[in-house]
Design the sequence.
């Protein structure tokens, strides 16, 4: 199913990205996807939106990003199982990139400490 052109979402801070705030109707309009498709994605286990009082679905900005990714993969002909694997791999890549950056920062600080210790003047005995 071809989706309608997307209406750009408002840019909010990182802190609010995980906060559920959009109803299924709003998400449907923002992404140009029918509500039935959003429900199918949930049924397939690709996304789990929050529930308001156990009934109404509420989507966060993070959910919107995942839904955009799902819709793009679906349009490319990837089935639900493939989409799930791709999303899991992409999440793992992000985690690994964060770990690499942390190790690089630790190494940089260690090298700076070593350089500082080498340049310290020796005291007279």
Sequence:
């Amino acid at each position: 199913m071809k989706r309608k052109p997307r209406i750009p979402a408002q840019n909010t801070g990182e802190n609010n990205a995980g906060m559920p705030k959009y109803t299924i109707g709003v998400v449907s309009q923002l992404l140009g996807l029918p509500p039935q498709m959003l429900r199918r994605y949930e049924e397939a286990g690709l996304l789990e939106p929050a529930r308001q009082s156990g009934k109404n679905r509420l989507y966060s900005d993070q959910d919107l990003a995942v839904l955009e990714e799902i819709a793009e993969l679906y349009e490319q002909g990837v089935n639900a199982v493939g989409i799930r694997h791709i999303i899991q791999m992409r999440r793992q890549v992000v985690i690994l990139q964060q770990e690499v950056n942390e190790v690089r920062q630790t190494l940089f600080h260690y090298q700076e400490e070593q350089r500082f210790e080498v340049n310290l003047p020796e005291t007279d005995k």
Remarks:
- The beta strands are 22-23, 50-52, 56-59.
